[in-house]
Please model this.
Amino acid sequence: MDTLRLADDAVGAWLQLPGSATAELMGSVGFDFVCVDQQHGLIGDDALLPMLQAIDATGTPSLVRVTANEPAAIGRALDRGAAGVIVPLVDSPEEADAAVAACYHPPRGSRSYGPTRTGWLGERPDPLCVVMVETTAAVAALPRILEVDDLDAVFIGPSDLALGAGMPLRAQDGGPAYEDLLGSIIGPCREAGRPVGIYCASPAHARRFRDMGCTFTALMSEATMLRTAAATHLADSR
Ligand code: 3PY
Ligand code: MG
Model:
């Protein structure tokens, strides 16, 4: 299994459809990681286990975006063998610390000990805890969020960020006000030496956000890729 890298321009895949075959397919493409999205994806806990097994079989590391910043949700993803979690809507240092605590057993944290799959997988590195900064409250609290111990990376949710700042979703396509907002997240993360990633609705977004200083990106979901390709091929066939 490759080491999970959230720097050096790593590019990840994003899964929203349940199913181990698609997970294995996406794991085999060469992405630096594959993230299974349980927040907005259609993937429940029973679908998650075979997807993580399929991604593991390809040697690509996996992350899970959990449904919410809740210890039970984080523990279930890690117990099923994810290498780390992306925790949505983290707005304060207290919430960031709670997310980290949910990733670690005592004494560092409060994660309950239950070595089911993790037991038979054997010794593994500590899970990565990535918190999402995607609200104006989180942007205001970012300097203090970045002081939280054992926080591995920040991940920007560009759509929630735009909506929360009163901007349309298309603000992500470019424009000074939105880029200033992104800069106010990327700059402090880089200064603090923390990896900072962002969800990208297209390869063009990935290139632009990387040029702005993001250290890793996650590319549009497999559902969007499939629908876009299907619509293109249908149009070409008419
Ligand atoms: C957002 O853009 O808000 C996200 O959470 C991306 O998945
Ligand atoms: Mg979001």
Summary: The chain has ten helices and eight strands. Residues 10-237 form a domain with the TIM Barrel fold (CATH 3.20.20.60).
